[in-house]
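pasting for ref
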Amino acid sequence: MTMNPTLIRAVCAVALAGIMLCAGPMTRAWAASVNAGLNEPNPVQPFAMAAVAEFENPWAIAFLPDGRLLVTEKAGRLFIVTQDGAKTEVAGVPDVYVRGQNGMLDVAASPDFEQDHVIYFTFVAPGPGGGALELARARLEESAGAARLADLAIIWHQEAGSSGGQPGGIIAFAPDGRHLFLSVGDRQRPSTAQDPDQARGKVLRLNLDGSVPPDNPMAGAGGVRAETWTTGHRNPYGLAFDAAGRLWLHEMGPRGGDELNLIVRGRNYGWPEVSNGNNYSGIPIPDHATRPEFEPPVVYWTPVIAPAGLAFYEGDLFPAWRGSALIGGLVSRGLVRVVFDDQGGANEAERWDLGHRIRDVAVAADGAVWLVEDGRAGRLLRLSPRG
C-alpha cells in the first residue's frame, strides 16, 4: 500500500515531537524545518561597507579584548590587525597541509585572554594520507612591534589523515568559559560521520586543555566516543552560542540541504543517512522527515547558500538585529540574517548580496559587523549603519 507523503510527514512530526519532549530542557520545542533557500536578496542595504585590509585566502577572524582582530590565511599565516588596517604577522605558526579546503582554519582568543594571553587555533597538519585536523593553543607574545606564538601545544589531534576537504575546525567556547566545542567535518568520507570511533562528522566537547570533561555523554567510553557531543554532521563552518546559552551550528549540505542546527547534547543529526539535499550524482537521499530518530535542522537552504561563519548580534549599532544570527554566504555571495521565535523555530529574515564570497563574520564591541571575503585578495570589511 502506498501512503500519502503528507500523512507520512505528519506521522513523523508527531513521533519526533514526542522524542524531543522527553529529551530535557535543552531541547527546542519541535517546529517543522523551514526552507529559506528560495529567498531573494534585499536590494536595500541598511549599512555602509568599508574595506579595511586585504589578505590572501583569509579564512577566519576573531576579536581580541582590545578591539584588534586576529586573521588567519589558509596558507598558514596569522595576523594581528588593528581596526585601521595595520597588520602584524605572528611568527611561530606550525606547518600546515594546504590543499582545497585544508590549511590554516579558525582562531579564537581564550576566555581569560586578558590574564593568560592565550589563543586557540585549528589547522590541518601534514602527515600520512594527507593531513589531519589539529587544535592548538599558544601564548601570544608582543614586543617592539613584533608578535610570536610561545609555548605552543597541540591539545587535540585527529588520528587518521586524509587528502579530502571538509575539515570543519570551528571553535566555540562555552558561556562559562570552562569548555570548548570543536566542529569536525567528514573529510568527504560521508560514512565516517556515523562511525562513533572516528573523529569525523562530529561536534566535540573538551576541557580548555584538551582533556575530556567527565560529564560528556560517553565520557567513560574512551577515545573519540568520550569526546563526542553530537554526531552526524557533514561540513560545519559555523559554531556559536546565542545570548541564551544555546549552541548553534550550520553545515553545508550536498546538492541542497544546507542546515542551521540547534546543538543538543548527545543527538545525532543524521548525515549521511538523511539530508534535505541530494548526492552530487543526483541520487536522492532520504530527507529528515523520513527518519524521526535524527535531529532535523531548524532552517535549511535549498538551493544552497554555502554558509561560512556564524555570529550572534547583540550590539547597539543595528538595534533591529539584536538576537539575530549573522551568517556569511559563499554561494549566495553575501550576508544572511536569521531570526528566532519563542517556539524553537527560526527563519531567514533577510539576505544581502555583497558581490563577494563571505568567509567569516564577527561582531565588534561597538556593534559594528566585520566580514572577511574568500579568495586570493579577500578584503576585511566593516559594516556600520548608513549615515
